[in-house]
Amino acid sequence: MEIYDLVVIGSGVGLTVLNYGIRFGWKCCLVENSKVGGTCLTRGCIPSKILVYPADIIREAQHARKVGVSFKIENIDWNLIAKRMWSQIDESKSMEEGLKSVPNLDFFKGNGEFVGEYEMVVRSVKDQSIIASFIGKKFVIASGARSFIPLIKNIEEVGYVTNESFFGEKFPKKPWNSLIIIGGGVIAAEFAHVFSAMNTKVSIIEMLPRLVATEEPEISEILENYFRKHMNVLVNHKAIEVGKKGNKKIVIVEDVNTGERKEIEGEEILVATGRKSNTDILKVEKTGVETDKRGWIKTDEYLQTTKENIWCIGDANGLYQFRHKANYEAEICIRNIFGSEEDKSTVDYSSVPWAIFSYPQIGHVGMTEQEALEKGHEIYVAKNRYSSVAKGFAMGFEEGSEDDGLVKLIIDKSYKILGTHVVGPHAAILVQPFAYLMNAGYTCNIPEREGEGEVPNIKRACPESGSFMPIYHSMVIHPSLNELTAWAIGSLQPVNINHDHAHEHHH
Asked: Which of 341, 444, 448, 470 would suit a FRET pair with 289, their CA atoms being 20 to 30 Å apart?
């Protein structure tokens, strides 16, 4: 039986770790059951943003009336938008071809399944026949996640779309006339924005009391108020049954408070009710790898699972399912697998930033007010509105208007930043500097020396003060324009320095 030094399951962020194994001359194996590149490239954040940006332009054109400028949108070229989107997804084809020619690498297309502690078979996705069997000395599980489909009567018979099938065989030739979205989280909010801007009649069904429940209540309220101007929003409603009426699909919803039922109809149904672990496919229980009650793989602070020499990164551990967080974990994992004992690093999720590319846009890093209180912090809260600053007013935001954006800061009594939350234009860019600050640590307090006189601030600073290291150590929201400046660090080259200070960075 073939024995590999390193087996990586998943070709998204898993490729980053795999690359190091190949560089080290290890005998490596990659297992992937779908398109190479993972969720972000092929069915998630990158293709969705190519749809989001035209939708942003449409909403900006409508908002421009507030500042005295009117635009007429004469045509929405869905074919061109789709062509640009597919050009990014199709990069997976050339990536796959490239992997097949890499020395010391075997690439298997199929479902990996553990059959022993460090033994795996790979089954064909089509017929479940075994196409490979091997042993791995070390495993990195980067198998991602898939859409969670709730138990709704007749949902399978009637049919639906998920983010996976949308960026696949169910991509529409033109925007649907009407769309029912089941779910009110990140994916739901972005799809609702895209299609409502493209003149689709959108209905959102969310069983919780508010949309994007991971965010501050004030931010959910601003988003919801704006959405209600452009679509039908039903919070506190649960989808219980689906059916067909002519060429339309019907969703029967129930008010979770009153039990009252009503019908919502649309041309298509998009299910965006969260993510589900792929551990049921992997059968990790045969390895000694433990999962939590929802099936997410448990990892320690070094990203190692409960089984020695098996690590887990990315969506598979269920923690903060964003590509930039997965990139961060990959770097930690690389140090812990390939580095010395002294190089070992631990993860820190206290300053994970993210953005929801809805309209208005949402940016988030760190704790919410409620989370800070639950963790026992004594806190300050600071708020400001876009309308209260000159630039905000110039952009058409006025005090009391429903679309007036908000910034909310959560500050510890020691003035440490615990969380920052923004809703409004450029939210992802406005929140990112606070992620850098949260990774900067504390300033050094150098004691005064008698008779020393006044010491200039620059000489009193910590060695790290003013350096790029907080940026280097921070997760950078992906995909956002913040990457433009942050990733410049990766090309650092000496000019008149004799030794190489260049840094390689994957955030």
From this structure: 341
